[in-house]
Amino acid sequence: MLIAPSILNANNLNLKQEIKKAAGAGITRFHIDIMDGHFVPNLSFGPQLVSDFKREFPLIDAEIHLMSNNPKTLIPEFIKAGADVIEIHYEAMDEENLNYWLDYISSNGVKVGLVLNPTTPVQVIEKFSDQIDQLLLMTVKPGFGGQSFISSSAEKIKEAKDILKKADNKIPIEVDGGIDENTARICKNAGASIFVAGSYIFKKESISEQINKLNEVIK
């Protein structure tokens, strides 16, 4: 079980200090949302932030959630910046391009994840499960932090778990959106093992206390 805090919800003017606090509570991976203003209606970080992150925290994984339909420009740049994991959306490109970029990321020594939006059928993972290191199921509509967990997500996690089990594939299932103590428990029971939490961790008084609470639920 793994918590990957989303820095989208951290105080960007105090980002280094907030990452340090989370790392001090045992966090070994951070989730970095990359939004281009086209695939989703929001803008966030770029390759320079990832490069700075890896320079300051070389032993902590940078997980890049790429919400963009411009992989040709962005994926090589995030690989150069030192990304440890790059996750790309099924909905961002046709399946031929998706195949290409999944293989491209992997061939460059970076772990690769496939992301599915809430409305995308989980059955699509049957075509790609042998190319990926993890599966990210969005439990909110991507684009903004602080949204409420979609209750039907639990059933989708179970479906994905069953598909992977039938394929004898043990890749982890990650969840992102509206994760707190209650929804993390629901997702864990359904089969998730990586939990992205943003507002729950960074919008409270104590970052370490929130991480400890979440760890108690998922351990």
TrEMBL record:
Cofactor: binding details: Binds 1 divalent metal cation per subunit.
Catalytic activity from the UniProt record: D-ribulose 5-phosphate = D-xylulose 5-phosphate
Keywords: Carbohydrate metabolism, Cobalt, Isomerase, Manganese, Metal-binding, Zinc
Stored InterPro entries: Aldolase_TIM, Ribul_P_3_epim, Ribul_P_3_epim-like, RibuloseP-bd_barrel
CC per GO annotation: cytoplasm
Residues annotated as catalytic: D33, D176
BP-aspect Gene Ontology terms: carbohydrate metabolic process; pentose-phosphate shunt
EC number: 5.1.3.1
Pfam families: Ribul_P_3_epim (PF00834)
Entry binding sites for substrate: S6, H65, G143, F144, G145, G146, G178, G198, S199
SUPFAM superfamilies for this protein: Ribulose-phoshate binding barrel
UniProt GO MF annotations: D-ribulose-phosphate 3-epimerase activity; metal ion binding
EC top class, as a word: isomerase
Residues that coordinate or bind a divalent metal cation: H31, D33, H65, D176
Cofactor: Zn(2+); Co(2+); a divalent metal cation; Fe(2+)
Family as reported in the entry's similarity comment: Belongs to the ribulose-phosphate 3-epimerase family.
Protein name: Ribulose-phosphate 3-epimerase
Higher taxonomy: Bacteria, Bacillati, Bacillota, Bacilli, Lactobacillales
